[in-house]
Design a protein that fits this description.
Blueprint lengths: L1 H15 L30 E9 L6 E11 L2 E10 L4 E11 L9 E7 L8 E12 H5 L4 H7 L5 E10 L6 E9 L3 E8 L2 E9 L4 E8 L6 E11 L1
Antiparallel strand pairs: 1-2, 1-12, 2-3, 3-4, 4-5, 5-6, 6-7, 7-8, 8-9, 9-10, 10-11, 11-12
Amino acid sequence: MKVARSVMLGGMVLLGLLTAGVSADPSYFGYTGLIVVPTAETVGKELWNVAAYAKLHDISDTNQYSVNFGAVDGLEIGLDHTKTGTPIMTDTRVNLKYAMPKVKAEDASIAMGVIDATNENKTLVYGVASKNLIHRKAIESDADPRTLQALRHFRDISLDGHFGLIGGVDSNFFVGLELKLGKYVSVLGEHFNNSKNAGIRAHLTDKLTADFGLVHLDNTTHHRVGVSYNQRF
């Protein structure tokens, strides 16, 4: 038990050395989110991002390229281009998401979205709520000295939850968790359409982000890597 606790705290300290606001980052399918799960975050007004993802073990198999921009407050418009297989097959999808204005800052964020609005493959409509579940202050209020010693390496720790419903898939309910270890590193976990996924997101700079994801953990695991770049018009 002591060994397990020491390993856990050691891992926290190691990640703390990397850590230091997190923007709305693209998911593997273009729209802003975690690995696959969409969140209620949107690209801000007059902001845009671009991203590229690939399978780690076979970069020629499936590649994703996307761009999102904030047309007005709360409205995100995106394009997602997929290149698959040999011979090469491609398709381009339009994604839309609207985040409703909050009444209070502590309220959950709520958004409605459409994946593949032009029905190039299959149009999916979803709703999602995102909320901060745990913040460092809550952890500090009920923690022993050894835990606090590890936490001193983190400027900010929080756990965000993303819960939603989507139509047109086998499993309509989805959930995602993002453990933010400071401002630069997040650990991601999610369940989407009967698939369990996990990953790490690292904000290398205030504009450049790198993702590493494991998709279909309960089946044939696919390794995904990606980078995204955020900028203002």
